[in-house]
Amino acid sequence: MNKKRKINLAYFWAMIAVTTLLVFVSLALALLPRPSESELENRELAAFPKFTVESYLDGSFTRDLTKWFADTVPLRDNLVELSGQIKELEGIRQDNVKFHGNVEIVKADDSDEIPEVIVTTAPPKAEIAEADTAVTEVLVTEAPAVTIPGLSETVTAPPAEDQTMEFDNNGIVTVGDRSFMLFGGSKSQGKYYADVLNAYKISLGENVNVYNMVVPTAVEFYLPAQYSDYSNSELTQIKNIYENLVGVTPIDAYSKLASHTGEDIYLKTDHHWSQLGAYYASTAFAEVLGETVQPITDFEAISRDGFVGSLYGYTNDIKIKESPEVFTYYKQPLPYTTEFFNYDTLTSRGFGQLIYEAAAVDNSYAMFIGMDAVHTHVVTENKNGKRLTVFKESFGNALIPELIPYFEEIYVIDIRFFGMNAIDYMKQKNITDVLFINNIFAANTQSLIKHIDDLRFGSVGVKTETIATTAETPVTTAPIVESVTAAETVVAETLPAETLPPETLPPESSPPAMPTLLSPE
Length: 521
What we know:
alpha/beta
């Protein structure tokens, strides 16, 4: 009898404990503030969906509400970090190496059969006559169009590959204190990328110089040889892209980076390169332009300790967290002004700086331009009449300060966020030069390549009701100054993923032959 009573009493108290825990968790979920962004993952979290009768009836409201509820759990980053510590205790790390994601042995893409990639262009007839000799036939339809070898009227991209992050990849591996995103890549995706850039050249005509810089990543130079079966050759894929360019000048950043692998040209805990790596790549561009290279000693180097980058957010690997690195950035001494524009409406946000030094240490890479989802216009002291448009993803952010010596104006367009037809925009701004600068993962990721292609015809990453008109967007150029007071700020808004949402952006002063790509030593 006493034994049965003890069992019942234990059961009672267990139920009380479970009920109390459930009540506590429910109250926490209901009352604690829900985060809007994750510093750990360096991204914005799902937003609370707007209710409409249509979204309710088609089920999208309920689906988006569930996503918001799961993505914005209170204390989210703390719980994710705790989960990583627990997984580290449970997991297996052999020889100080750990793989993350669906990592597979990759096979070299030796197939010569590349799916036909079709890109529509509709430049004025005058431009067709002046376009590259690769144009073999003019089709006169309602909108004048051109046919290029392998290209015709609709876009047919290679089959889409699975995406686990922004870039198609083969997973991530941590080796000691360094992590690598493993590269898969394919010739068909690379040819798709090249064909889209070729179409830009045809649309812009022979009087606009179009350049392409494909940036290798750290895995190409630093992955230990015993793990090379898990990552394809980036050099092979870069060569494939460059060999398929027509009228577009390739920039050999690879060789410059390969000759400086003994320096900190890439970050160890982040998937990006360092600004030093971006500087060396900029020297390759300057040489193709025929410009005198600005020496690195002209820049002011500033370092900050304790940086832990994006690869920790992607993997939640506690070893990355325990291996912070020094983050060094370089301030351009030449005077210039920078105006930021809302990427969707192209209305001015005000003047700011290219390097946002108030960025949190763990968000240091986001100091370049301050964010991705913004349109940027830089005016320099040069009076050479050269106006550059840069099409980039986040790798390009660190390159912009190094381009200041070579152009009078620089317009920066993120391939994921822009509010109007990019061809029309560049013609309005009398652009003389165009640089596509993307890392090799982006140049092999179909969704990002499609963004570049879509920008020839309209906006990307913009809701229909906020698309900028094709009318001339006023751009106010302020006098070039050495410094600007902190009172001149840029209003921050809620921005898409992989951005730094600062309260303010404090201001700061501020066709050659194809190169031979070199293999790393």
